[in-house]
Amino acid sequence: MITLQHRTIAHFDLDCFFVSVECLHDKSLKGKPLLIGGQSDRGVVSACSYEARKFGIHSAMPMKTALRLCPHAIVRSGDMEQYSYFSREVTEAISESAPLYEKASIDEFYLDLTGMDKFFGSLKWTTELRQKIMRKTRLPISFGLASNKMVSKVATNEAKPNGQMEIAFGNEKIFLAPMPVEKLPMVGRETSAQLRRRGVETVQTLSEIPIGLLEAWMGKNGIALWNRANGIDESPVVPYHEQKSISTEHTFPTDTIDLQFIHRELVRMTEKIGFELRQQNKLTGCITVKIRYSDFETVTKQMTIAYTACDHVLLEKVKSLFHKLYDRRLLIRLIGIRFSQLVQGNYQINLFDDTQEMIALYQAIDSIKDQFGSQYLVRAAHVNHEHRPEAVNPYLPKGVGTFKKRYPGR
């Protein structure tokens, strides 16, 4: 039986992915401060080049603030279709070679290479895979090779830009020791501030604190911190399957041809699983719509899309698929919607042309759905005025149930 200490894990990360794709299409952008995101006064930065980061710019920063820090920065709105295309190209290259891999996000992958040293060196194999990806996509990509996922990810960050690094088994603590605590995954601004207030500035200092004391300070997070500081991470590489999906379907009480009613159902169902998608912090790259007619004939149609979890984008695609599919003009018995090709990722990365207000709106919608239930906040397009949410739940705040009046066009 192979023990955890013998594992070999590679972490691949595409460097400044969105920026690199933009530079691939326009070579004049290379070496310049480049911002990807909304170009309006209320837009946000989705990604930025290393040159822009030197001015203190980071993702999720208001575009207005970023341009104040670097007035000569170049702004591009972004092209999620292109980013999704290159993400799939890299996934394909890895799937052709790796025995076991996990697609952690649109631009990040973990590979379990345990046991491959018996046949050839893992470093040599990983180096050749990196070169294959760069030849295929012409994009820079970095990797870290170590005994677990956490150390390999830190190694990748140290190898960037466009580099590679191997941490030999047994050297995990030595590698991490001199680093500031912020270099550890999951150590954010708040955790960092707590540690520094207690005089903990380096990973080595953190690793020397008794685990019981860290648990007293931070609860279960303290135990996790101690493990990371000591180079311990037993989390497995989760096999990636394109078949993973979120779906819903509805069989009507009476077969119908009422398109207005069907459209309302499409909106309701799309919002329902769109919310589930965001709850799981995932994006979908493929939509499937299913229709079952009254004679029980079942037809489906699917569409590969740019990775997203935004309702207004998903609704447009779902409706388009339905109208292409519904060609018999017979009574409909059932409709279904499925989102597949799921990857980890925050839906904000798709809001290149949207504003802070739009991002805040999605966050507010999801917060209300968390509190009261997803069925109590719906688009006006599918509100049945005889069954308004307030009538079902009298404890809902007045106005919950529709946001079309406040945010017209959404």
TrEMBL record:
HAMAP family: DNApol_IV. Monomer. The record marks F18 as: Substrate discrimination. It comes from the Bacteria. This is DNA polymerase IV. One of its GO terms (cellular component) is cytosol. It is found in: Cytoplasm. Residues 9-188 form the UmuC domain. It comes from Chitinophaga caeni. The active site is at E108. Its cofactor is Mg(2+). One of its GO terms (molecular function) is DNA-directed DNA polymerase activity. Belongs to the DNA polymerase type-Y family. It catalyses: DNA(n) + a 2'-deoxyribonucleoside 5'-triphosphate = DNA(n+1) + diphosphate. The gene is dinB. Binds 2 magnesium ions per subunit. Keywords: Cytoplasm, DNA damage, DNA repair, DNA replication, DNA-binding, DNA-directed DNA polymerase, Magnesium, Metal-binding, Mutator protein, Nucleotidyltransferase, Transferase. One of its GO terms (biological process) is SOS response.
